[in-house]
Design goal:
This protein has 432 residues and is α+β, with helices and mostly antiparallel strands. Strand 1 and strand 2 (65-75) form a beta hairpin. It has a 7-stranded mixed β-sheet with strand order 1-2-7-6-5-8-9, sandwiched between helices. The chain has a two-stranded antiparallel ribbon with strand order 3-4. Helices cover 54% and strands 12% of the residues. Helix 11 runs antiparallel to helix 12. The termini are far apart.
């Protein structure tokens, strides 16, 4: 969708929101441009200096271009939600001891190597008409968390914009973002291509995308895994009078027309809060995955499931065994724990233990997953040579399979043939 159509689509919606928040912003929304403002004349230096003063930022120049740089400093003793920022050291230390191959592992890194990163853009698309206009980057320096925000004052200033950002992050090793792998960083790389001959080389960052981790742990528990929802439900954070993310591009468009600090001040605050939340969220996820905080039954199950999928079978088994009778959970959650524990036993070749749990799930009707009945059938056929029981559980697997609606097409046909082949083999053994 073009920027012009986006502006027309949201103008009425934004007007009501803006009236509730600020008369000045409301006036700006009423005067939103009806077309993309990329053809505007360069901003006057005097106007830019005035806007910078209002934002407590400085104007930085490079190759006859300019950008705004705002720096905020937070002592590591500052508490943000559940944790102080100083606990980032503890979170990084945890990864030095365990799970070095985990996607969130900062093994071999120091807290100072991490760049907590977020952007504000003129739209969700990746086309030439969409720009990043605010880069937010937080890092540990000495006894502080320093947040730098790089602001693009107009479309003709991207060289200065990216020059100062890339100049500052050359020594860092790893990004920490929320949806940065799919959105923020690919767009940075795209825009940098236009000015690559005049700016420092784009660093080859590692990347921790906390959206993926959040989805794993909370998609079954929360109504959404938006950062604002996670702040409220999991991190003991909340935002008062925060500028909604969907308003940011439109306020920026109005700033291009009439550069006033008050128009984008809330966007700066929103971006900075996102950076601070990334620090707190990385601490919290690290502590959950290392059992340093007490998670809900679903959180602990999803942590174990993630470890299992990564091949940390022993660690997942130990966690499940230690907490199975301690964690408060409902019948469905209990069945999930038992099933995962059974599969960890199987992976570790503890087949008798695995069979006991699989059979318990099937006979107690705790699960209608045909795969579990099939596991029991395999055990009786291959380990115990009890073909009668193997046939019983194969038929049960077929019954459950017929009720399975998630499999379609070739996948369903393949599974159906495999079950029928097992049934025919058992019948050929004259078990009737």
């Amino acid at each position: 969708m073009s920027l012009k159509k986006q502006l027309e689509r949201y103008k009425k919606h934004l007007k009501h929101t803006a009236e509730m928040e600020s008369p000045e912003i409301s006036a700006a929304v009423n005067d939103l441009p009806s077309s993309t403002p990329v053809e505007k004349e360069p901003l006057l230096n005097e106007a830019l200096q005035e806007a910078a003063m209002g934002l407590d930022a400085t104007v930085k120049e490079f190759e006859d271009q300019a950008m705004l740089l705002k720096e905020s400093v937070y002592p590591l003793s500052t508490k943000h939600g559940l944790y102080t920022f100083h606990e980032i050291y503890n979170a990084v230390d945890l990864w030095q001891e365990h799970y070095s191959q985990h996607p969130l592992s900062s093994h071999g890194l120091a807290a100072e190597d991490l760049l907590f990163f977020d952007t504000e853009t003129t739209g969700l698309g990746a086309g030439a008409g969409h720009m990043i206009f605010l880069l937010g980057a937080g890092r540990i320096i000495g006894s502080d968390l320093q947040v730098k925000q790089y602001f693009l004052p107009g479309p003709g200033h991207e060289t200065a914009f990216y020059y100062y950002f890339l100049k500052d992050c050359q020594t860092l090793s790893n990004l920490v973002t929320f949806n940065g792998k799919a959105f923020d960083w690919p767009r940075v790389k795209t825009r940098v291509q236009f000015v690559r001959d005049r700016v420092p080389k784009l660093p080859d960052f590692g990347h921790f995308d906390l959206l993926h981790a959040s989805r794993r742990l909370w998609k079954q528990e929360l109504e959404s895994v938006r950062l604002s929802t996670i702040e409220e439900k999991k991190l003991n954070l909340g935002r008062d009078l925060d500028v909604p993310g969907h308003m940011a591009p439109f306020l920026y468009f109005q700033f291009l027309k009439s550069p006033k600090a008050s128009l984008v001040e809330g966007v700066f605050e929103h971006n900075c809060e996102d950076i601070l939340t990334l620090v707190t969220l990385y601490i919290h996820l690290s502590k959950l995955l290392h059992q340093k905080v007490e998670g809900t039954a679903m959180e602990q199950y999803q942590c174990c499931r993630w470890l299992f999928q990564l091949g940390f079978y022993g660690e997942a088994r130990s966690w499940l065994e230690a907490h199975l009778e301690k964690v408060q959970m409902n019948k469905e959650e209990h069945a999930h724990w038992i099933e995962l524990l059974a599969y960890t036993y199987k992976k570790e070749h503890l087949l008798d233990k695995a069979h006991h749990l699989f059979e318990q799930l099937v006979l107690n009707d705790w699960s209608c997953n045909y795969k579990l009945s099939e596991e029991v059938a395999k055990y009786y056929e291959h380990q115990k040579k009890d073909y009668e029981k193997a046939l019983f559980f194969t038929k049960k697997a077929q019954m459950f399979f017929d009720k399975t609606v998630s499999l379609k097409g070739n996948a369903r046909e393949h599974e159906q043939e495999a079950l029928q082949h097992r049934l025919d083999r058992l019948l050929s053994k004259n078990v009737l």
